[in-house]
Amino acid sequence: MGFFQLSLLSLFTLLSFSSSLAVAGEEGAKFCPKNSSLVLNFYKESCPQAEEIIKTQVQLLYKLHKNTAFSWLRNIFHDCAVQSCDASLLLDSTRRSVSEKEMDRSFGMRNFKYIETIKEAVERECPGVVSCADILVLSARDAIVEIGGPFIPLKTGRRDGRKSRAPLLEQYLPDHNESISSVLDKFSAIGIDTPGVVALLGSHSVGRTHCTKLVHRLYPEVDPNFNPDHVPHMLKKCPDPVPNPKAVQYVRNDRGTPMKLDNNYYRNILDDKGLLQVDHDLAHDKRTRPIVKKMAKNQNYFFREFARALQILSENNPLTGDKGEIRKRCKVANKRSV
């Protein structure tokens, strides 16, 4: 799993409901979306119940499978950061192309079948109307609420791409071992500034990290940058220098509030308890440390910046109008009519 392992191997409790949302709206007005064709409540005429159906399905599935929320949050990072927010992430492999889901950057991602469950529910109400790209974005939005965060207004009107972008993943998705400069540059390219990047990495507050992404900091010698009080727990959870990637061996990203996306992540990394190299570097790089410290003290600030960055990310180069298609099933592009 790459850099966004909410290990949820983390994509990543956002805004406080009233005041934070108001500020998020003000902050959001500062950026210029790359495509103004997206609007709030795009389906109000063509499928008025669409967003309510998606929210209901997210709530039902979260009650049954708590880790779905982390998966849906991670989906929006992995799909929208790679050239276009077009649900290319959801496509299965074909004889001609490899799925993004099978690439190393997507290690640990799961629960894609539940996106299909949501799609099926929407299709029963409005066949051929709501895109998988919008379902991916709205399921992340509603998942945030389920893990203690607020409702973040996200625009809709995306259409679905027809091809996997697997060859581009390493170019666009930062890895957990990349330098802070590289991480900042990749997100700057889609309009997300330094505070926004620091906030998005706060998604590492939830979920878990598989030992395969952690053992290089534990073996053959423990990384001296780790808080020594945190090391015994990690060694217990990751006892093998070469863990089986298919084994259930992982460490919770945040032992204090593992099911809640909050600013505890920033306090942890300032205390050298960040699991990934990028977590440690975020707390110590001179460009990001002041922001980390501010977010550690002020959860509302974290929430505002997270909401603003997520809005920008969700509007990254979408397919709209007559571009793309509305898939019948999210994992397969529609068959072209002869």
UniProtKB/TrEMBL annotation:
It catalyses: 2 a phenolic donor + H2O2 = 2 a phenolic radical donor + 2 H2O. It is found in: Secreted. GO terms for molecular function: heme binding; lactoperoxidase activity; metal ion binding. Heme b binds at H204. Its main location: secreted. Binds 1 heme b (iron(II)-protoporphyrin IX) group per subunit. Pfam families: peroxidase. One of its GO terms (biological process) is response to oxidative stress. The record marks R74 as: Transition state stabilizer. Residues 37-334 form the Plant heme peroxidase family profile domain. GO terms for cellular component: extracellular region. Ca(2+) 1 binds at D79, V82, D86, S88, E100. Keywords: Biological rhythms, Calcium, Disulfide bond, Glycoprotein, Heme, Hydrogen peroxide, Iron, Metal-binding, Oxidoreductase, Peroxidase, Secreted, Signal. Removal of H(2)O(2), oxidation of toxic reductants, biosynthesis and degradation of lignin, suberization, auxin catabolism, response to environmental stresses such as wounding, pathogen attack and oxidative stress. These functions might be dependent on each isozyme/isoform in each plant tissue. This is Peroxidase. It comes from Rhynchospora breviuscula.
